[in-house]
Amino acid sequence: MHYLDNSATAPVLRESAERAFTVMTADFGNPSSQHKMGIDAAHILKESRETVAAALHAAPGEIIFTSCGTESTNTALFGAARRRRKGHIITTAIEHAATLSCCKRLEQEGFAFTYLAPDETGHIPAAAFAAALRDDTILASMMLVNNETGVQLPVEECGRMLKRRCPEALFHIDAVQGLFRVPLTPSKWCCDLMSVSGHKIGAPKGIGALYQRKGLHLPPLLLGGGQESGLRSGTEALPNIAAFGTACQIRAASFERDVQHVETLRQALLSGLRERLPWALVNGAGDVPHVVSLSLPGCKSEVVLRVLESDEVYVSAGSACSKGKESHVLRAMGLDKARVDSALRVSFAPFNTTEDVEALLTGLGKAAAMLKRG
Ligand code: PLP
């Protein structure tokens, strides 16, 4: 099996799965319980929060555990907008559906929006962000790394500009595809809120986190027992939380080595394409090595996906979340239909090998020969 769809989701690390199992079956107390089992569970919660906070270069008190990246983003955007009741919000046309769907709802509630368009490389120009700022801007939300192209957005510049022009406005960063791809430094980015997700880094599905800058208190989406500093009520999903902490520990220990390794894999893929399929097109600047978007014009991506799958090679057509819909990201970049219809996203994780790249190149050659009749 050659799994190259790690931006959709990554396999759970053995250590994370074992940790979750132990917490499920042995350390299964409720962290709110007053007896020893509860106190032990609360200790695991505390330790896990410290580990995840370290991965985000944040303080433990700034980490709110959620069920996924989508919930983190919903909590951030609805909380940040509704506390001001009206105003102007800046985001980009290339955000994940988790952000764009919240924006659509907030538009219906009367908030004004500016959606920044990318250039043809997939980048969002910082100058466009500066031009979009208004006196009534209350919030800006942008991703750190785009899930379809691997392009990095200018969060540091935009965060500074936002705070200079609108000091009361909040800045949310969707860092779901940035965690352990690039170092996360929210305070350097003037970031108030940041979303991450466990299942992209080797933790199970069903765990995410929201960084909420110290001193900020958003209104909650979920009301109840007041867990997670009152922002996210509900008994904590301790097995998933502990597994997320373990995954962060492991990924942090090999971060630089992993990035170098993944860069080697990307270079092997790009040089293989140049040699064997020189007419293949790479979409976007690909600032992080983990994601490569490529198009084989004339070869529909759904069909290529099936050919690859028959050899147990797994990639995405566009993003996994778009479920066969045309990519709004590639369209916003102004790419033509043939290129969008044939787009594939290859996404690497540290466990991938050059054999995986070789299997992909062989599969792509096979698909191209079938679909373009040699
Ligand atoms: N944001 C980005 C950039 C993503 O790629 C994803 C998932 O693909 C999400 C948010 C949603 O994260 P989750 O699947 O944890 O809800």
Write up this protein.
With 374 residues, the chain is an alpha/beta fold. Helices cover 41% and strands 14% of the residues. The strands form three sheets. It has a seven-stranded mixed beta sheet, sandwiched between helices. A hairpin with a 7-residue loop joins strand 9 (281-283) and strand 10. The model has no long low-confidence stretch (mean pLDDT 96).
Alpha carbon gap, first and last residue: 26 Å
The string of secondary-structure elements, in order, is: EHHEHEHEHEHEEEHHEEHEHHEH
What is the overall pLDDT average?
A: 96
Ligand species? pyridoxal-5'-phosphate
| Sheet with the most strands, sense and barrel status | 7 strands, mixed
Alpha-beta classification? alpha/beta
Shape: globular
The Rg value, from CA coordinates, equals: 21 Å
Give the strand content.
Answer: 5-15%
**Number of helices in the DSSP assignment:** 12
How is the largest sheet built, in terms of strand order? Answer: 2-8-7-6-5-3-4
Q: pLDDT under 50 segments (min length 5)? A: none
